[in-house]
Amino acid sequence: MSKTKVCKDSMFSLRIPSNLLDEYREFCTENSINISQRLRRYMEQDLEMWRRVRLEKIKRLKELEEKKRSN
Q: What averages of pLDDT result for each successive group of 10 residues across the chain (71 residues)?
């Protein structure tokens, strides 16, 4: 039996001006884009970048600490 990770989707509220949301919904409809999937993709990209930057920052801090210790 294989264990699979169950991903539970959640909903949350955003404060967005209705005219912006309406226009974006129209844009997505005209271009056959699913709004939820598009927003999810942007969130994933933001998180990937944030993780990368955070890891680089941690790496630089460790290098600085090691450099200080060696002096």
A: 69 89 94 91 96 96 91 74
